[in-house]
């Protein structure tokens, strides 16, 4: 039995015009992309990227009541012999603190830098719109005062910042700060959750997962390539004095955690600021081998380079 093939009928000029307009509209709405380029899901990514309401206020304690925390007379120890006391009025304390309300205390973690070097680097890094004033507080602490609220907010909210390969620890200025008594041990870092199952790509769930590492400041999503799969990225404030979280268990799944841009990380204790050879904590994790010998377990897989 012969198969009858129908020949295409010739389109009218009106049909050709309508078809041309439909094809053009489809291309404009979907975008003409090369097959070698991954498709960008803008709306989905936008739903994951951005600041979390209240995250910075909670992490940096913007709601802290200086008067209540520092001025309680009931907590003061009695004067010792040879000690005098000066009592400033509430109005005077408010006046002398006002000029520093938009100032940050910074320290390069794991490295000593000079004042001129630091100010040159942060000017190039932050690109402020207006003038910044710097003060060397000693012991590698520096005070940076901003003339513009936008510059202050930009630096505080757009981290993490690095000087070379070292994290720049940042905190808002606070009264009674003394470099000799201060500890600036929290920095914002990007962490990755590689091969995170797709159902966990929910803003509230990502925040909950990241919160076991530290306060989550921002959520981002980044796909390395279509062939290798993707990973979620969270900007988290971590305490450098504590060992890193290297994995998180969610239900029956164990999720690996990786840290971007970490240079001076000790693989012995899991802390920043020194190498394994100079570790003073001596907190080595060990695993028993079949022959009874002990072997140090080094979690070198938690460090990744920053994306360009």
Automatic annotation (TrEMBL):
Keywords: Metal-binding, Zinc, Zinc-finger. Residues 266-279 form the CCHC-type domain. Residues 1-34 are annotated as: Disordered. Residues 18-30 have a biased composition (Basic and acidic residues). Signal peptide: none annotated. The keyword Amino-acid biosynthesis does not apply. Residues 1-11 have a biased composition (Polar residues). The keyword Acetylation does not apply. GO terms for molecular function: nucleic acid binding; zinc ion binding. This is CCHC-type domain-containing protein. The lineage of its organism: Eukaryota, Viridiplantae, Streptophyta, Embryophyta, Tracheophyta.
């Amino acid at each position: 039995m012969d198969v009858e093939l129908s020949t295409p009928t010739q389109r009218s000029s009106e049909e050709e015009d309508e078809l041309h307009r439909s094809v053009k509209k489809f291309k404009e709405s979907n975008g003409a992309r090369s097959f070698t380029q991954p498709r960008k899901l803008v709306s989905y990514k936008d739903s994951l990227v951005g600041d979390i309401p209240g995250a910075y206020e909670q992490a940096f304690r913007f709601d802290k009541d200086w008067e209540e925390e520092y001025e309680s007379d009931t907590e003061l120890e009695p004067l010792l012999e040879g000690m005098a006391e000066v009592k400033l009025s509430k109005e005077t304390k408010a006046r002398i603190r006002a000029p520093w309300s938009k100032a940050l205390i910074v320290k390069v973690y794991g490295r000593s830098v000079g004042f001129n070097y630091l100010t040159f680097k942060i000017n190039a890094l932050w690109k402020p719109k207006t003038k910044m004033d710097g003060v060397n507080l000693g012991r590698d602490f520096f005070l940076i005062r901003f003339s513009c609220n936008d510059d202050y907010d930009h630096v505080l909210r757009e981290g993490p910042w690095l000087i070379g390969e070292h994290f720049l620890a940042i905190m808002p200025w606070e009264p009674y700060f003394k470099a000799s008594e201060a500890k600036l041990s929290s920095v914002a870092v990007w962490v990755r959750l590689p091969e995170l199952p797709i159902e966990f790509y929910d803003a509230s769930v990502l925040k909950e997962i990241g919160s076991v590492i530290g306060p989550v400041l921002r959520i981002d999503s980044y796909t390395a390539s279509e062939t290798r799969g993707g990973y979620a990225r969270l900007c988290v404030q971590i305490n450098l004095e504590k060992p890193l979280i290297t994995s998180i268990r969610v239900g029956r799944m164990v999720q690996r955690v990786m840290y971007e841009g970490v240079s001076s990380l000790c693989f012995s204790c899991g802390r920043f600021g020194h190498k394994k050879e100079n570790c003073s904590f001596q907190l080595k994790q060990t695993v028993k081998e079949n022959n009874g010998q002990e072997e140090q377990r080094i979690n070198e897989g938690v460090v990744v380079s920053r994306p360009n």
